[in-house]
């Protein structure tokens, strides 16, 4: 079961091994350090042992959703932070809360939206248990963002859409960056959008990825 030792090895052992692997793949040292501290096994669904919980694989978390593989979590976090501090960050798609916890170790304030109430509730409880008090969660529509807390220095979307929702771009501060997977199933890629001034956006295209779709309906 998740949280138990496997063949006498501890969660700390597996976290350190995972972080070393990410570093050898070129992930930023600060991101690797945080991911070496966040207990991924706590966020994994029951039934996965420690080796599986820290393997570089996607895991189901119920409700048709997944927890992204560690490399993708690290890569998206790295892209979000590249070149600038991100004090106030919006995450669209809380899921189990693992990416949220990683962002909390890298940013001053994290606001996270989840459209599935059961996931939002369980993630909120898990994040509080870990003492991550700078994280604010909400059951809401990711397409709409969180205008009451905008503008944001960074926005990270953990589900894919055909294009970046304009409501999210409107909540991005000048100098801010949005990271999200864009494209149809089988042809998604990580996109970055930097707001250079009130009217100018710069787009970057990066790794091929596979994500669940971004949906508007609340559940």
Can you describe this structure?
With 219 residues, this protein is an alpha/beta fold. The chain has a single domain, classed as Vaccinia Virus protein VP39 (Rossmann fold), CATH 3.40.50.150. The protein has eight helices and nine strands. The strands form two sheets. A seven-stranded mixed β-sheet has the order 5-4-3-6-7-8-9. A two-stranded antiparallel ribbon has the order 1-2. Strand 6, helix 8 and strand 7 form a beta-alpha-beta unit. Helix 1 packs antiparallel against helix 2. It is globular, with a radius of gyration of 16 Å. The N terminus is likely disordered.
What's the helix count? 8
What pattern of helices and strands is seen along the backbone?
A: HHHHEEHEHEHEEHEEE
The total strand number stands at 9
Ends: how far apart?
A: 28 Å
Mean pLDDT, as a whole number? 93
- What's the architecture in CATH terms? 3-Layer(aba) Sandwich
Can you summarize this structure?
The protein is α/β, with parallel strands linked by helices.
Helix and strand layout, with pairings?
Blueprint: H1 11-24, H2 29-35, H3 40-43, H4 50-53, E1 59-62, E2 65-67, H5 70-81, E3 88-92, H6 98-104, E4 109-114, H7 117-129, E5 135-139, E6 152-157, H8 166-170, E7 172-182, E8 188-197, E9 200-209
Parallel strand pairs: 3-4, 3-6, 4-5, 6-7
Antiparallel strand pairs: 1-2, 7-8, 8-9
